[in-house]
Predict the structure.
Amino acid sequence: MEMEEQWWRGQLAADIHQSLRIKELKLPVYKALSPQIALRRYFADLLAILSNRYQLCPTARHLAVYLLDLFMDHYDVAVKQLYVIALSCLLLASKFEEKEDRVPKLDQLNSLGFMSSLHLVLNRQDLLQMELLLLETFSWNLCLPTAAHFIDYYLSVSVHENDLHNGWPLASIAKTKAFLEKYTHYFLEVSLQDHSFLTFRPSMVAAACITASRICLHISPSLTSQLHLLTGYTWEHLTPCIELMLIAHDNDVKEANKTKGHQSSPQLLFQPQYQHSTSQLVQFHPPTQPQTPVQPQAQTQTQAHTQTQAYRSHLQGRRPTILSGSSSRGYTIQACPGLQSSLQPTVRALPVQGPIAR
């Protein structure tokens, strides 16, 4: 990103941040009503991989997933049609967030492996109609803040010279910032994969990403006074979101250790082979249509609360050692799991049934 585009470094950073905080208060309420919600993780990962393939910025990637979430929350859509909708969300988000030459071209999308396997061919007229439907659904407003819009501003105060690592002064602030940034972007991607994070404000998710990263790196205090002053969030505000992130992190660590057969290290797990490969795109198969009933927002929140309650005692047990900087269990980072292990070949697709009854 060009220096002039890095708003968080400019004189208007505080004003822009305040504007984003106001806009997030007006975001549509996500109700988790989609009958295809079991496929949500699949399409979120698909959009993330396509964003990496076309080198789109994180804000475009997160906006694309958020647009898809909002649309799925309003419409009951056939699985095959969800591919067209997902690609349309990606195009809208990239047109809004990226320079023109970064926006994926129609022939690039049609050349994707899963498009041919699904016998899908996009044309300009169909894409235009879908984009218009999406824009009408969003009331022609694409200025929708996501956690990615806040993360760089919060990263600017993520490390302080008085921080401690395992109770000792930081050996290198630059290296600490580099590792913390990698962890933060890992947790940012974790937040894309689970719709439970949509129950939190985007700024809260961004602040939780940084705090969870400091916990994993044993940097104390876990929540810095600078981040608290910048966001207004306390530990009590962030704890539910952080706990969900650490649950996902622990699961990834377990998978990494199973794969390697030994305790993993951050350096190892940051290697390219642990990242999503764009070559996977030609191997995608349509997912199985979910048979589970739709979970309303209240039930989703209850399940998230149950998860965090189960994890809370474990977190509470290690939090004092983290805050004091003393040694605790080792933490590593694992890239988001690949898609293939969680997907099954398609058996059928539901017809489009129109808007979901409210």
User: Anything to note?
Assistant: The longest helix spans residues 297-324. The chain has 14 helices and five strands. The radius of gyration is 20 Å.
